[in-house]
Write a structure and sequence with these properties.
Shape: globular
Order of helices and strands: EHHEEH
Number of strands: 3
Number of helices: 3
Strand content: 5-15%
Largest sheet: 3 strands, antiparallel
Distance between the termini: 42 Å
Radius of gyration: 12 Å
Strand order of the largest sheet: 1-3-2
Structural class: alpha+beta
Length: 65
């Protein structure tokens, strides 16, 4: 295991990682359920935080209300 810090991912990287659109990521961020960090005007993510979020069942199921 490396001692290097985990790199930050862009919104586009995370959308591709999860197989969803950028609009879906924005919607999840608006509901304040998705872990993300706003740095200036850009959203940045740690892939490990996103993976933990998905596994913890806090991720939306895709069903609309």
């Amino acid at each position: 295991m490396s001692n290097e810090p985990e790199p930050w991912c862009s919104l586009e990287d995370i959308a591709r990682h999860l197989g969803v659109s950028r609009d879906t990521i924005h919607r999840w961020l608006q509901h304040k359920s998705m872990p993300g960090h706003k740095i200036g005007r850009l959203w940045k993510f740690k892939a490990s935080e996103i993976d933990d979020w998905v596994r913890s069942r806090n991720a939306p199921t895709g069903k609309r209300k």
